[in-house]
Amino acid sequence: MRAAVGTLAWLERTGGILSRRDRVDFLGQAVAYGFATLPGELRRALRIGRQVPAVDLGLIAPPDSAVVRTAERLIAEIAPPMVANHCHRTYAMGAALAQLDHLQFDAEVVYVASLLHDLHFADPRALPQPHCFTLPAVRRTRALLTENGWGERRRELTAEAISLHLNVRPPRTSVEAYVVYAGARLDVAAYRYGDVHPDTMAAIVEQHPRLDLKRKSAPMFTAQSAANRGSRADFYTRFLAVNLFTRRTPFLE
């Protein structure tokens, strides 16, 4: 069977480079996503607020373990501070949405995937051949989890969440993949922005400042596009105006 775009099987088979058929599928994802998020965008444009409860950040605090501390060191060493902070906010925002949705998830899996999903976003030539930046992140993450004795199921769940976070359509393969996707997309593109209480959002950003994400992420997407033609980052940059949509989010920076 043909592996679906963005899945781990697809990433390993293609290196993350879209075929013609994959590009059609990815464009279809974008159209479906646009229709699905239109009501929320209209509410935001019309400044129609929703009554949502604030989330106690203590209830969504990151887990603590040896592998978690190693992942924290890895993202701090490899990624620029802006990207590292985005990865920390990805977990916090995703966990906040999960609490509001009453979703149960493996906190270690989600936290490690959140921390490492953009590990090589700022390094478009992490591999010698054109690739999706999730591929070297998946390889590094698998090695880390193997060294720490994780079983295959949790390793693959973490790797799949990293690979799928870059899709346009929300993943349905696991709760963990959705939480990582939701947190990353909320931080970059304001996905479900109106579903998070302003106090919760302010507390997350205060804990992990955005460090001028709107401005600094644009050249990173552009560099990924130039170095890795045919990747999902390239498609976002050239055809889905990711830098424009990032600049238009309600976040201040």
Walk me through what this model shows:
The model has no long low-confidence stretch (mean pLDDT 95). With 253 residues, the protein is an all-alpha fold. The radius of gyration is 17 Å and the shape is globular. The protein is 62% helix and 0% strand. The chain has one domain (8-247): Hypothetical protein af1432. The longest helix is centred in the N-terminal third of the chain and has 26 residues, at 20-45. It has helices at 8-14, 20-45, 66-78, 81-100, 107-116, 134-147, 152-164, 175-189, 198-207, 213-227, 232-239, 242-247. It contains 12 helices and no strands.
Keywords:
253 residues; mainly alpha; 0% strand; Hypothetical protein af1432
Structural class: mainly alpha
CATH second-level architecture? Orthogonal Bundle
Separation of the first and last Cα atoms: 43 Å
Poorly predicted runs: none
SSE string: HHHHHHHHHHHH
Task: State the CATH class.
Answer: Mainly Alpha
Which homologous superfamily in CATH is the superfamily? Hypothetical protein af1432
The proportion of residues in beta strands is: under 5%
Number of strands: 0
Shape: globular
At CATH level 3, the topology is: Hypothetical protein af1432
User: Helical proportion?
Assistant: 55-70%
Query: How much is the average pLDDT?
Result: 95
User: What about the largest sheet?
Assistant: none
Radius of gyration: 17 Å
Number of self-contained structural domains: 1
Continuous helix count: 12
Short account of what is shown:
This protein has 253 residues and is mostly helical. It has twelve helices and no strands.
